[in-house]
Amino acid sequence: MPAATPAVEGRLASEGESLRGRAARGAVINGAYLAGFYSLSLLRGFAVAAFLSLTEFGAWGVLAIALGTMLALKQVGIGDKYIQQSDGAQDEAFARAFTLELLATGAASAVLAIAVPLLALLYGRAELIAPGLILALAPLGTALQAPLWIFYRRMDFVRQRRLQAVDPVVSFAITVAMAAAGAGYWSLIVGTVAGAWAGGLVALRACPYRLRLSYDHGAMRQYAAFSWPLLLASLTPIVMAQTSALAGAQAVGLAGVGVIVLAGSIADYTNRVDAIVTETLYPLICAVRERADVMLEAFVKSNRLALMWGVPFGIALALFGSDLVEFVLGARWRPGVHLIQAFGAIAAANHIGFNWDAFFRAHGRTRPVAVWSLITLASFLACALPLLIVEGLDGFALGMAVVTAVSLLVRAVYLRRLLPGLRLLRHTGRALIPSVPAVLVVLLSRAAEPRHRSSVMALAELAAYLIITAGATWAAERLLLREVVGYLRGRTRARQMVTAT
Questions:
Q1: Which value, in Å, is the radius of gyration of the alpha carbons in the chain?
Q2: Which phi and psi angles does 430 have, rounded to 5°?
Q3: What pLDDT does 94 receive?
Q4: pLDDT digit string, tens, across residues 470-489
Q5: DSSP collapsed to 3 states, 160-221
Q6: Cβ proximity of 405 and 383 under 8 Å
Q7: Distance CA 3, CA 12 (A)
């Protein structure tokens, strides 16, 4: 790794380790944390569901959606901008960012508190008001966790994730205990708020800088210029989800909406793994953003790693979607087979340049993200939504495929401007090659199998697909995989990699 540039200095929590080694270890640490976090959240949901009635769980669902919307809108890039900056006085930079985070969160909590009585009126449930007002305190607790940005910026992933684990662990313990004691949905309310504030207080105690507030009008303009495109981009999936549900309920009924939600949630699983790579790389690419060669290398290799599993997963969902419905989900989900299969292919395609926006954020250029989101939303409203209304679920599948193609095209245009040496089609083709022999084997097997298909046949084909894909991936990408393993073993001398372009 080359000598540290001014952007790199002050970011590493300790010396003696390359940025590449830190990134490789960070991926493992972040992966372990996120896997544990998702598992704990899933387990909490199952545990609470055993103690709550459907009505109680439904009441929590209404409030949880409102909270999730406010938290999504609150994520306007203040943390991203703090990590991206390279000011000389980092304590002052954090004080300014912390102040803005508290202001933004206070506004979000106020909006949520105002919205709660309106929700209660809309659903005709006055009992939602008291728990909803208490739940509005949760965002303030998350704002107090801002000191975690400092460790994230330094790529001190171990300390960041250790402190960050306080929130979900406390939330899980309190929620399950109260639910078992018969507290109903109040267990989720109290557990969520307590977890957020416990995480905030622990983060404040660990902050390496003196905590203070600092408002600077010039900094405010910089953060606003950085953040408003990200806020606009965060609204796009909310609008798409809400309009899909509303139009779907009219066109295909609530059962059809359930299919849309299920297909989207299965495909969205791939985004969670992508988030591990993106979160790990973001402080690194902020540190080396002036090095065009290193930026290109980071983009190409991170995308090769993501495509290495994302493409086989998406193709497998497309190939075995009917088996998933037939042998796992049940016959009632048959109308959604084509949509599930289409979303599998879409999930695979969305891995192409999946973390492109992180590279623009690292350069402080967030307007392309807003333009991309608006074009994507326009294609959705012009194509996917009308097809859902006219042709039902199959039309929606076709429309979402068009939306994905438009999204990838805009993404590719911007990437060529940022990384002139990038050969996106070449790397995309390279990622598809390992799945080709596996797909051929599955299709040939199906052509020869009897008319009646059993679960044993499906499992045998899936096993063959996975084994062949793994072997072909190793044959095609063994040098890259060996390099990553080398970093994980603590090698400080980087292995020369396959040429990126």
A1: 24
A2: -65, -35
A3: 94
A4: 999 999 888 888 887 776 66
A5: HHHHHCHHHHHHHHHHHHHHHCCCCCHHHHHHHHHHHHHHHHHHHHHCCCCCCCCCCHHHHH
A6: no
A7: 13
